[in-house]
Amino acid sequence: MKKSTQSVRAGSRRANNMGGLNTPLLSSSAIEYLDDSEVRYPRYFNTLNHDVVAEKMNALESAEAGLVTSSGMAAISAILFGLLESGDHIVLTEGLYGGTHALVVTGLERHGISYSFVAPETGCIETATVPETRMIFLESPSNPLLSVVDLAFVAKFAGSRRIITAIDNTFATPILQNPLVLGFDLVMHSGTKYLGGHSDLCCGTVNGSTKLISKIRNHLVNHGGCLNAQDCHLLERSLKTLEIRVGRQSNNAMIVAQSLDHNENIKRVYYPGLESHPGHDIAARQMEGFGGMLSFELQDGINPVSFLRNLGLVNCAVSLGGVETTICQPIATSHQKVSAQERRRLGITANLLRLSTGIEDAGDIVTDLLQALARTVHEG
Ligand SMILES: Cc1ncc(COP(=O)(O)O)c(C=O)c1O
Questions:
Q1: What's the gap in Å between 98 CA and the centre of ligand 1?
Q2: Could you tell me the pTM of the whole model?
Q3: What spatial distance separates the first Cα and last Cα of the chain, rounded to whole Å?
């Protein structure tokens, strides 16, 4: 089945004898077990509404197995702490979501796990691996600079050394990029973003082989982090429109990126859809579209906070991937916890703004950005 059909149909269950088209909401935390093949419980991640979302994501990510979690960070921490052991080493690419960066720098060494952050380039990833390297974790496109990594290359290299490859696929969504098909072992999403898509859910997903997912699940059963049935149900509903939302958001982002590129008040636009982007060719090869996220840097002297306050339609807010266009200043939000020195080194400046295009009319989004820019420059 094609992605649009999978989004609507995969995993869904109809209520027995009721005639309704939608999966029923099973809110029970006490579930009869005598006639079931397994004991079901919300914190075992296997109630009806968990299974339905996991199966839809299995279809969309071409995975054998999957789990839905209470947040994206729950999925990331379960991957790291469910699979890595004391003495292991992990290679991560620089410029990851700030929360992931914070978890790594504050959490891994306490468990005897060493790590290396490297530039998001295949050569650097290869060079950083040592005999103890057990996992490579990356984002592509990354948050907030939209770096792109050649996933098939990394998967091949890691496979030859029995290193587990895991990717945060939040920015790309399963509609535009399927890392498991390119050879990755695990793919996770902050479902809070595009999967939920309406800025009203906090959730996460992880998909991969039955073997790895069952190890992660064993960890989660002990550590918690399950999503409640109501939110699983809402997430299933949201996923039905994922393909059309992401298609529109991706088209809008391309129009916005082209409109801001070469604007005299903008220093640089980061969007893999632009031919000038260093990762454009790889993105064109491994993605079905370039996504709804872009970043841009205002020229020196333009006050970013004044610009944000001058916007009318576009909301200045944390998070991303909703139907409404939102913008944020990473140094004050997603990358607040990354040290100022590290941010400077990565190019995450005060004038860098991250835009998540919604499904509104692209012309309306561009008009709002340009009027806010003109007004801010005029105010001096
Ligand atoms: C790329 C990326 N990964 C992971 C996360 C964490 O997800 P959550 O907030 O759902 O825990 C975020 C949140 O902003 C993100 O942007």
A1: 9
A2: 0.97
A3: 54
Q: For residue 227, what are its two tokens?
A: 């999503």
Alpha carbon nearest to ligand 1 atom 7, residue: 72
Q: How confident is the model at residue 303 (pLDDT cuts 50, 70, 90)?
A: very high
Q: How far is it, in rounded angstroms, from Cα 198 to Cα 324? A: 8
43 CA from centroid of ligand 1 (Å)? 21
Domain boundary assignment for the chain = 3-239, 242-379
Q: Which CATH class is domain 3-239?
A: alpha beta
Q: Does residue 291 have its Cβ closer than 6 Å to ligand 1?
A: no
Over range 9-36, report the average pLDDT: 92
Arithmetic mean of pLDDT, 185-214: 98
Q: How far is the CA of 206 from the centre of ligand 1 (A)?
A: 13
CATH code of the region 242-379: 3.90.1150.10
Residue 195 CB burial class (10 angstroms; 0-12, 13-18, ≥19)? buried
Minimal CA–CA distance to 166: which of 104, 228, 109?
A: 104
**pLDDT reading at 380 higher than 90:** no
H helix intervals, the chain: 3-9, 48-61, 72-83, 98-107, 122-128, 151-160, 173-176, 210-223, 229-239, 242-260, 280-286, 304-310, 340-346, 362-379
